[in-house]
Structure formats: structure tokens, C-alpha cells
Amino acid sequence: MLQWFFYKPTEIERRIQELYQSIGIGSPADIQEEQIASLLDIKLRYEDAPSFSFEKGKFRCIVIDNSLPADEQRKHFFHELGHLFRGHSGDQSRFPDLFKELLEEQAEHFAKYALMPYYMIQALPLPEYEWDFPHLIASTFRVPLDMAKDRWEQIKRRINTGRWEQACIERERNRYRKAEPATWCDEAKRMFRMAIDRKLQKGQGVIIR
Known about the structure:
It is built from eight helices and three strands. It is mainly α. The chain has two domains: about 5-120, Orthogonal Bundle (Arc Repressor Mutant, subunit A), CATH 1.10.10.2910; about 125-209. Strands 1-3-2 form a three-stranded mixed β-sheet, with helices on one face. Helix 3 (about 70-85) packs across helix 4 and helix 6 packs across helix 7 (about 145-180). The longest helix is centred in the C-terminal third of the chain and has 35 residues, at about 145-180. Residues about 205-209 have low confidence and may be disordered.
């Protein structure tokens, strides 16, 4: 059983969830390019040209390379939607290479999260065997299997990280409780008082920190 309460979504994941809920995208079947473009008032065109996005004022447009396979066109749409969502406007050809790489990386992250939102994956019925889960994600969200596997591994890493962090917190809490005299058992309190009395009898001072 997946312990989803250990999963900590990123800020961009939370913003995607808010966006989808605000426009009525409530299930994996709703994650369709034409529908999302229409709901967000984005002009969507398929042309014999490299994919790109464009924004000027209130006008926003996404052009998808129609020579690509269908699954690649779908990935390109959400990649370009990520550029618009994150405000990557302007002529990127004039940007420094490192900055362009950052923008592309951000758009790729957006595409992954927008195509496979964590809160929708969380609602999926768990298959009997873990290795079947990436196949379920791929078929449910209509993404390539390698992309689904990558998302699945990311989810497991996040859950494991959250579990480790919680274990560290609990360990520190337990250490604090053990050091707090108010939580000691009666026998421990009795032995502690005896030790103090002996020091006082020997004329030694006692410092309690």
C-alpha cells in the first residue's frame, strides 16, 4: 500500500492542481489538448513546423509540429503550455544558453506534472503487483511507458524521502521526551533524587540543566 501522506507535492504541482480544478479538469480523461487550450483561451494550431508557443498581451498561441507521432505531439503541447504557464515569454534565441536550458527544464517538469498529476495518480486503484503500476499510469494518462516509469520512480522517491524525514522527526521527539524529567517513570525519579541527596551530603553543588 502506498503511503501517500508522506508525498510532498512541489509548488508547481499544487499550482497545476489549482489550475485544473479552476477550469473543471477533474479526471485523466479530461486532460485533452484541445479542451484545455479552449478552456484557457489559447489558440492551438497544428502545422508543418517546429513546435513553439507565443504570447502577446492577452493573445496566447501554441503551435504543434504535425509531423510528429501523436504521443510526441501530446508531450509537445504540455511542454509549450508550461512555457506559457511559467511566463517564459520573449525571444528565447537571444537568451544565454544556461538560461534557455533552465527554461526548458522547467517546461519539462511542468509537462510531466500536468500530464500525470499526483492527486489523480493517487486516486488510481493499485494493481496487485507494483511493476504493473507504470503500465496503468501510461494507459490511464495516455503517455509513453518510459515517461510513466520515470514519474512512478519519482513518486516512490518522494514517498521514501517523506518517510525518512518523518522518522528523523520522531527520533528527535523521542530523544527529547527521554531527556525530560516529567516523562520519567517513578523509579527513575527516585534514583535521580537519591543521586542528588548523595551529592548534597558530600557538600557538592548540584546543577540541573
